[in-house]
Structure to design on (93 residues):
C-alpha cells in the first residue's frame, strides 16, 4: 500500500536508525531479530522509503521498548493534529 504524499516528509523523519544504533544493532541484526529473510527492509524504513506495517511497527516498539510516537514523532504529531481538527469539526457540526 502506497503511503499518502502528505505523510511522506514525516515518515522520512523517523528515529528507527537512531534507536537501532542506540541498541548497538546492525541492520542485519534487526532483520534477524524481526524474522525477515530480506535484509533491505530496515534500510528502507530508516531512509523513509517505506513505512512498516502494523505488525512490524509493533515489533519495532517491542524491540526498542518505546511507544510508536518515539519512533515516528513527526508522523504521530501530524496525524494527531489532523484527527483533533477533524474531531472538533464533527463536534461543532
Amino acid at each position: 500500500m502506497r503511503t499518502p504524499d502528505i505523510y511522506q516528509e514525516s515518515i522520512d523523519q523517523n528515529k528507527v536508525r537512531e534507536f537501532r544504533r542506540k541498541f548497538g544493532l546492525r541492520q542485519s541484526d534487526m532483520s534477524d531479530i524481526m524474522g525477515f529473510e530480506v535484509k533491505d527492509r530496515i534500510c528502507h524504513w530508516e531512509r523513509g522509503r517505506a513505512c512498516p506495517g502494523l505488525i512490524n511497527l509493533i515489533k519495532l516498539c517491542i524491540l526498542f521498548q518505546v511507544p510508536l510516537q518515539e519512533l515516528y514523532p513527526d508522523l504521530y504529531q501530524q496525524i494527531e493534529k489532523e484527527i483533533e481538527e477533524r474531531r472538533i469539526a464533527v463536534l461543532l457540526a
Notes: The mean pLDDT is 93. Residues 5-92 form a domain with the 434 Repressor (Amino-terminal Domain) fold (CATH 1.10.260.40). The CA atoms of residues 8 and 48 lie 7 Å apart.
